[in-house]
Amino acid sequence: QKEVEQNSGPLSVPEGAIASLNCTYSDRGSQSFFWYRQYSGKSPELIMSIYSNGDKEDGRFTAQLNKASQYVSLLIRDSQPSDSATYLCAGSGGGADGLTFGKGTHLIIQP
Amino acid sequence: EADIYQTPRYLVIGTGKKITLECSQTMGHDKMYWYQQDPGMELHLIHYSYGVNSTEKGDLSSESTVSRIRTEHFPLTLESARPSHTSQYLCASSEGGGGATNSPLHFGNGTRLTVT
User: Fold this and answer.
1) What pLDDT, on the 0 to 100 scale, is given for residue B62?
2) How would you write the pLDDT of chain B (116 residues) with one tens digit per residue?
3) A88: which chain B residues are within 8 Å (Cβ-Cβ)?
4) Tell me, what DSSP letter sits at residue B61?
5) Pairing of β B111-115 and β B10-13
6) Could you point out which of A41, A85, B56, B86 has its C-alpha 20 to 30 Å from the C-alpha of B40?
7) Which of B41, B98, B105 shows the shortest C-beta gap to A98?
8) How many CB atoms lie within 10 A of CB B19?
């Protein structure tokens, strides 16, 4: 059973601070990982992709992948109230049935 | 910007009616997916397709059916809607044919279905 685990939260972070979101996965065959942001009532929006070990930065977002530890994380620097959303971690399941999604972490940025 | 479109955005319909939720993408993606998501809950894969004339059931048992006659079009049909079908339905697509999915999924805006 392929699984992606996330803490459901809510994770509360003060405005301007760094928000750290974590995710672990069970399938060692997974090669690609993605972070999606989902506002309430909206569809998931892709914000980061990461395919190799290490860090990948895009603006205020940094994704980190450690395949040995089967661990993926997302850092959001200078958190803004508009970052308040549910963040979904997803990994490639190795099959054609799409990605394996975690249940999401609800992030609240407090002004 | 992903070009994947779902219609209608909102649908309220009575029990027993037949409905079809439309999904189209203009990116030429071979793979398409339907997810069901209740408010505040996780995504559940209900159907997917590798390409034209290919359809598969997902992890969540569903009374809906799908078809894939054209690459760009992946409609979902409920023959007889029930209140238990009330949910948000999300369509997605990804590039790359066959084999493993290593590309991200691009989602449409969703259809929020209410069955009374």
Assistant:
1) 82
2) 559 999 999 999 999 999 999 999 999 999 999 999 999 899 999 999 989 999 999 888 789 999 999 999 999 999 999 999 999 999 999 986 555 557 899 999 999 999 99
3) 43
4) -
5) parallel
6) B56
7) B105
8) 18
Chain A positions touching B45 (Cβ under 8 A) are 97-98
Give the closest residue to A93 by CA, choosing from A18, A34, A37: A34
Q: Are B43 and A92 within 8 A, CB to CB?
A: no
Sign (positive/negative) of CA torsion B33, A35, A1, A54?
Answer: positive
Q: Which of residues 19-48 of B touch A (CB under 8 A)?
A: 31, 33, 39-43, 45, 48
Enter the DSSP assignment of B51: S
By CA distance, what is B4's nearest residue in A? Answer: A43
Q: Do the Cβ atoms of A46 and B90 come within 8 Å?
A: no
What's the residue count for chain A? 111
